[in-house]
Amino acid sequence: MDLKRYGPHRRRLGGLPLTIFELGKVYSLKLVSQDEMLAFVDSYSMRDEDQVLLLSRLPQRRLLEHVDIDKVSSYWVTSQQVAGAIQPSLAEILDIVSSHAENGTGLAVVEGIEWLISIHGFDEVLKMALKLKDSISNKKWAVLFVVTDGIMDTIQQTQWHREVFEWEIPRKVELSELSDIPPEDGIEIEDSEIPLTVDRSSELSFLVKISREGYSKDVVRRRILQWRRMGLDVSEAEPALFQESDSDGYKIYRVVEEKVRRAIELDNRLDILLEMGWRSEVTKMRFRIRQLTGFSEVESRINELI
């Protein structure tokens, strides 16, 4: 049988090697971390050839912190009557996913299955999953249900996984694998662009520099999301998204990129102070660094203590 599949067998997006989704199938992801799940959705949305539909328990204003909503068609599943929201109705969820699957190729992610089970009962949610499975069986889409562990008993889990394939978010690429991955077009990778500390003592890490040739609003939007996930206040870079000229936008971006790089360099030095026992001082200075302010004062204080 000639199986239609998503993209290449392995593709690095946002540090993740994406495994294959078989088209016309439904999958189940055991939720370990919502941040990790949304990071995967954001990475998958970078695949220009595929559409991504997300039915989330989070409103769009919260999703902005995790995904590029210009790339992801999102609906807030809630009982509230607000724009961009849908009711936690199984029929409505079935209709929205089925209608999106009529066109193109894509992935639909439906989270909050445990909430739907608490409202409608396990049997009704399973019936919805089976109807959706039939609906996309001959379509170029796959569906990923996100389920919180412990909501189903042993018998229910067996019934669920008999119809819905278990799936896990691929592990992150190890440092030793980076040399096997070709650089993206227009972006040169330097030796210093790998994560800052192998022992993960700092959450900040250097990212690949964006050249003028590789710059676009889409690229800088994704970079801002990456920086935000590190806990950096990069609001200063946001005006770059609204410049008519990419040259003007790049100038704004480059200023912030240099500030971020200096912040990471200082943060690396703070790891030394942390090992020396200056925990309170490090906490205060890390807060300032993540605001991209007070670099000179922080550097002077580090020099004093070291």
CATH topological fold name of the largest domain? Rossmann fold
What is the helical fraction, as a range of percent? Answer: 40-55%
The CATH class of the largest domain is identified as Alpha Beta
Query: Largest sheet, if any?
Result: 7 strands, parallel
**CATH homology superfamily name of the largest domain:** P-loop containing nucleotide triphosphate hydrolases
Please, what is the oligomeric state?
single chain
Strand proportion: 5-15%
Number of domains: 2
**Unreliable runs, pLDDT <50, ≥5 residues?**
1-19, 172-202
- Give the helices and strands as they follow along the chain: EEEHEHEEHEHHEHEHHHH
What is the overall shape?
A: elongated
Quick recap of the structure?
This protein is α/β, with parallel strands linked by helices and 306 residues long.
